[in-house]
Design a protein that fits this description.
The structure is a single chain. This protein is of the alpha/beta class and 293 residues long. It has a single domain, classed as Decaprenyl diphosphate synthase-like (Undecaprenyl pyrophosphate synthetase), CATH 3.40.1180. Helices cover 57% and strands 12% of the residues. The protein has ten helices and six strands; from the N terminus they run αβααβααβαβααβαβα. Strands 3-4-2-1-5-6 form a six-stranded parallel β-sheet, with helices on both faces. The chain starts with a helix and ends with a helix.
C-alpha cells in the first residue's frame, strides 16, 4: 500500500514538474557528467561492470526524456582521458558495453523515428578497433539526421580538445591557409571535436550526478565560456530519475529569469539615469536664462 502511495505521489510530482518546465524556455544544449556507476556497484555489493550496465540503462532513459522535453543537443561524458588510468579489465568491459549500445542504436526504431544524429567527440584512435568500428557505423547510419543530436564524449578531455584545435589552427597558419588576424573565437570553436565536422554548440546546462561539485575537464570551451547553468545532484548515475532532469531544467530556467530581471533592472536604472541627467540639464539651462534677464 505504501509503495502504491509513494508511486502515485512521485508520478504526480513528475507531472507537475513537467508542466512547469514545458511552459518555460528549455535549454538547447545539455551536457551530463554521468558519475557514480562504480560507487553504485560497490554499495550494491556487485562487480563494477554491474554499475556500468545499470548506468547504460539510465542513459537510454535520459535520451528519451531529453527528446521529450525538446532539448536539441545532449552531450554525455562516457569515457574521459583520465579513465585510462583504471584497470585494463574494467576499461575493456566498458568499451564492449559502449560498442554494444552503439550497435543497438543503429537498429533501434527510436533512433530513426527521432532522426537522431550520433556523433563522438574525443580521440577515438585511443580506443579498441572494435569500438572504432561501432563508432564509424553509428555515425554513418545517422549522418543525415537532424531531429535530435546525441554527442558522446569518449577518450575526451576539455584541455586536450583545445590543444588539438590550436595545433590544427597553427598548422594552417604555417601552411598559409589561415592568417593570424583571421583567428577569432569562432575559429577555435570550429576546430574543436568532432574532427572534420560541425563542433558542438555552447552548453546551456551542465549536470553532474554522484554528489561531486566539479566539471572534471568537460567541454571547457563550450561550457565555461558560455557561463552555463550547473546542476549538481547526489544520486549516483544509475539512480538518476526523470524528476532530477526536470529539476535541473528548472534551475536553468530560474537562472534565465534572474538574468532577465537583472537586465530589466539595469535598463530601468539606465533610463532613469538618462532622464535625471536631461531634467537636471533643463533646470540648469533655465536658471541660466532667467539669471541673465
Amino acid at each position: 500500500m505504501l509503495k502504491f502511495i509513494w508511486h502515485t505521489l512521485y508520478k504526480g510530482y513528475e507531472r507537475l514538474l513537467t508542466q512547469e518546465v514545458v511552459s518555460g524556455t528549455v535549454p538547447r544544449h545539455v551536457a551530463v557528467i554521468m558519475d557514480g556507476n562504480r560507487r553504485y556497484a560497490g554499495r550494491m555489493k556487485k562487480a563494477t561492470n554491474f554499475g556500468h550496465s545499470r548506468g547504460a540503462d539510465t542513459t537510454e532513459k535520459v535520451i528519451d526524456w531529453s527528446w521529450e522535453a525538446g532539448i536539441e543537443h545532449l552531450t554525455i561524458y562516457a569515457f574521459s582521458t583520465e579513465n585510462f588510468k583504471r584497470s585494463e579489465e574494467e576499461n575493456e568491459a566498458l568499451f564492449d558495453l559502449i560498442g554494444l549500445k552503439f550497435d543497438e542504436m543503429c537498429e533501434d526504431e527510436r533512433t530513426h523515428k527521432r532522426r537522431m544524429k550520433v556523433r563522438i567527440i574525443g580521440d577515438i584512435s585511443k580506443v579498441p578497433a572494435s569500438l572504432q568500428e561501432s563508432i564509424e557505423k553509428v555515425e554513418r547510419v545517422t549522418r543525415d539526421y537532424d531531429g535530435f543530436n546525441l554527442n558522446v564524449a569518449i577518450a575526451y578531455g576539455g584541455r586536450q580538445d583545445i590543444i588539438q584545435a590550436v595545433q590544427e589552427i597553427a598548422n594552417k597558419v604555417v601552411k598559409g591557409k589561415l592568417a593570424l588576424d583571421e583567428i577569432t573565437e569562432s575559429t577555435i570553436s570550429e576546430h574543436l571535436y568532432p574532427a572534420g565536422g560541425i563542433s558542438v554548440p555552447n552548453v546551456d546546462l551542465i549536470i553532474r550526478t554522484g554528489g561531486d561539485t566539479r566539471v572534471s575537464n568537460f567541454l571547457s570551451w563550450q561550457a565555461n565560456g558560455n557561463e552555463c547553468a550547473a546542476y549538481f545532484c547526489a544520486p549516483f548515475w544509475p539512480e538518476f530519475r526523470k524528476i532530477d532532469l526536470l529539476r535541473s531544467i528548472r534551475v536553468y530556467q530560474s537562472r534565465m529569469t534572474a538574468h532577465h530581471q537583472n537586465d530589466m533592472h539595469r535598463a530601468a536604472n539606465f533610463i532613469s539615469a538618462i532622464g535625471k541627467v536631461e531634467v537636471d540639464g533643463v533646470l540648469n539651462r533655465s536658471k541660466l536664462i532667467f539669471n541673465t534677464r
